[in-house]
Amino acid sequence: MEEKNITSVKEFILLGFTTDLRLQRGLFFLFLIIYMVSLSGNMTLISLICGDSRLHTPMYFFIGNLSFLDLWYSSVYTPKILVTCISEDKSISFAGCLAQFFFSAGLAYSECYLLAAMAYDRYVAISNPLLYSQAMSPRLCVSLVAVSYLSGFINSIIITSETFTLTFCGSNVIDDFFCDLPPLVKLACDVKESYQAVLYFILASNVITPTILILASYFLIIAAILKIRSAQGRLKAFSTCGSHLTAVTLYYGSILFIYSRPSTSYTLERDKMVSVFYTVVFPMLNPVIYSFRNKDIKNALNKIVRRAKFS
Fold first, then answer.
1. Spatial distance between the Cα atoms of 277 and 269, rounded to a whole number of angstroms
2. Full-model pTM
3. What are the C-alpha distances in Å from 206 to residues 49, 132, 228, 249?
4. Which residues are within 8 A (CB) of 202 and not within 5 positions of it... i.e. 6 or more apart?
């Protein structure tokens, strides 16, 4: 039996997107623009929510926390992508790869739970609008956000410890732009059934469970909307869920595409493009999704602009 070349990996090489220097420069400026728009958009949304008393409601509390997550989520990936695009050194240390993996997983899982909490918030707002502020008390809102973070990072500790105790044999080249699960698993030579069981547990607890909670919330939302007599009232009630539905569809769609398949079916070139969407593009889109047709956000922004003009 042929023995595998098992070595102690001290660093990984991130291949990124292309070896073409001109294309790398183009990608550098593209990702830099996306990153700056993402930072400015999320920071602006957080500032508006914190600074305008009219936005001190449960819904905007969750939106503000989502922007906070996206702010750090994009910062886990994009700076390293930018360096990889313009530098000849494509390496990332073992510890650096572990840290990137841990924080990216923790933030991604936390966002899954937070989106589920936001679905419940929409259900309470539509089913019982008169008692909405009492039902979604500040204590409950803070608890839901805290549980989202806690659940996300506990699961991140589990998957990170299991992944980085695997034995990596042969090549240390990651055919991706960040330390993600599929390419790391491809480099491992001792992926056992116990590890596969952990992956299924992580998928079930961080993606499938929140998905079920979101679907249950929207089932109850639809039932509550159908009880509204006027067509205009039903349309107005459902329109308050439009932004959240868009965010859930885009985020969960890309996450499930990447991680709900067997490791043998991973196609790295195709998966890179999907990964770019939920790691880099999606944090930029969230402020747009939640502000595009939101009169409260627009009014708060116009208020600040008017103050700036007259100051």
1. 13
2. 0.89
3. 28, 27, 34, 16
4. 109, 155, 158, 159
Token pair belonging to 20: 């073409």
Taking the C-alpha atoms of residue 9 and residue 230, their distance in angstroms, rounded to an integer, is 65
The tokens of 211 are what? 């998905």
The beta-carbon contacts of 253-258 under 8 Å, at least 24 apart in sequence, are: 254/278, 254/282, 255/108, 255/112, 255/207, 256/207, 258/182
How do the pLDDT tens digits run along the chain, 311 residues long? 444 555 567 888 888 777 777 888 888 999 999 999 999 999 999 999 998 888 999 999 999 999 999 999 889 989 988 888 888 888 899 999 999 999 999 999 999 999 999 999 999 999 888 889 889 999 999 999 999 999 999 999 999 999 888 888 767 888 888 888 888 888 888 777 788 888 888 888 888 899 999 999 999 999 988 888 888 888 888 888 888 888 898 888 777 776 665 555 556 666 777 778 888 888 898 888 888 778 888 888 888 877 777 66
SS3 content of the chain, % helix, strand, coil (to 5): 75, 5, 20
Q: 229: burial class by Cβ within 10 Å (0-12, 13-18, 19+)?
A: exposed
Residue with tokens 């607890």: 205
CA dihedral angle for residue 61, residue 66, residue 70, residue 73, rounded to 10 degrees: 110
DSSP for residue 188: B
Contacts of 207 (CB under 8 A, 6+ apart): 112, 252, 255, 256, 259, 260
Token code pair at residue 4:
């595998």
- Which residue from 43, 31, 59 is spatially nearest to 120, judged by alpha carbons? 59
The token pair at 115 is: 């989106």
Beta-bridged to residue 91, according to DSSP, are 13
